[in-house]
Design a protein that fits this description.
Helix content is 0%, strand content 45%. By secondary structure, it is mainly β. It has a single domain, classed as Sandwich (Jelly Rolls), CATH 2.60.120.10. The mean pLDDT is 96.
Length: 110
């Protein structure tokens, strides 16, 4: 088992309006459904919201935009962080005048 991984050594997975880099999971020692990654958004419109059985946290690395969590919408910018409760719809979008919106995220069981 290896406890270390670098984003540059991970293949990108195409999503709708964003690219996902899966980082830490059970192969790296994560347990009980915990896993992490980085997503890069190029869309200026919200995509179909995601909903998960677990909770998900986000940390904005670069870019500016908006997040919608349940019925709340709020501005996001670098060094900001937010949490999505389990079973809550959520989606992100970048500002039209921003470069790509890059976020680190993690899933954790409840």
């Amino acid at each position: 088992m290896t406890y270390y991984i670098n984003r540059k050594n991970v293949s990108a997975e195409e999503g709708v309006g964003h690219v996902v880099y899966w980082l830490l999971d059970e192969k790296n020692g994560c347990a009980a459904g915990c896993f992490t990654g980085v997503s890069v958004y190029d869309m200026t419109e919200y995509s179909e919201p995601g909903v998960h059985e677990d909770q998900e946290g986000f940390y904005v690395i670069e870019g500016t935009g908006w997040a919608r969590v349940g019925d709340q919408e709020f501005r996001i910018e670098p060094e900001g962080s937010f949490m999505v409760p389990a079973k809550t719809a959520h989606t992100l979008r970048k500002d039209p005048d921003s470069g790509p919106l890059k976020v680190f995220w993690f899933h954790a069981p409840v």
